[in-house]
Write a structure and sequence with these properties.
By secondary structure, the protein is α/β, with parallel strands linked by helices. The protein folds into 2 domains: 68 residues, Signal recognition particle alu RNA binding heterodimer, srp9/1, CATH 3.30.720; 88 residues, 2,3-Dihydroxybiphenyl 1,2-Dioxygenase, domain 1, CATH 3.10.180.10. The chain contains 5 helices and 8 strands, in the order βαββββαβββααα. A 4-stranded mixed β-sheet has the order 1-4-3-2, with helices on one face. The protein has a 4-stranded mixed β-sheet with strand order 5-8-7-6. Strand 6 and strand 7 form a beta hairpin. The protein is elongated, with a radius of gyration of 18 Å. The mean pLDDT is 97.
């Protein structure tokens, strides 16, 4: 059992969101759906929570009603190995959502995601401040991260 689990509060789309996310991430599965009983507060038989895994990470989605909304103060950071994975995840999670800057997006449920290639973190962490500065300047102009553009900035081209 995972000690710390990400808990996501949805209005009434927990099951739909779970199915959407597990259709995008290859190493994913639904684990459990619990339903409201006689005690409520939701209608008896309606989905209360969905437990699922994305890439081995466990999540719980709650149909908690409209009281709380997602903000960018919390985001799901996804390490990507290459441009193909960045493109795949960015486009599928973006569908029906909103683009932002520097690899961030909001999906159609309002959840914020960062779709980030591991190459970006390596380049930003370079001990040569000129290289890391050029990469940072290039990244700040992007919505979806483009590794080729970052590499050219890193190389001083």
């Amino acid at each position: 059992m995972q000690k710390i689990v990400t808990f996501l509060w949805f209005d009434n789309q927990a099951e739909e969101a779970m199915k959407h996310y597990i259709s995008i991430f290859k190493n994913s599965k639904a684990l459990n759906i619990s339903r409201y009983g006689d005690a409520g507060p939701g209608p008896k038989g309606a989905v209360m929570t969905c437990t699922f895994q994305l890439e081995g990470q466990e999540f719980i989605a709650l149909n908690g009603g409209p009281l709380f909304k997602f903000t960018e103060a919390i985001s799901l950071f996804v390490n990507c190995e290459g441009q193909e994975e960045v493109d795949y995840l960015y486009e599928r999670l973006l569908a029906g959502g909103e683009k932002s800057q520097c690899g961030w997006l909001k999906d159609k449920y309002g959840v914020s995601w960062q779709i980030i290639p591991t190459a970006l973190m390596r380049m930003l962490g370079d001990p040569d401040p000129a290289k890391s500065k050029r990469v940072m300047q290039a990244m700040l102009k992007m919505q979806k991260i483009d590794i080729g553009v970052l590499q050219r900035a890193y190389d001083g081209q």
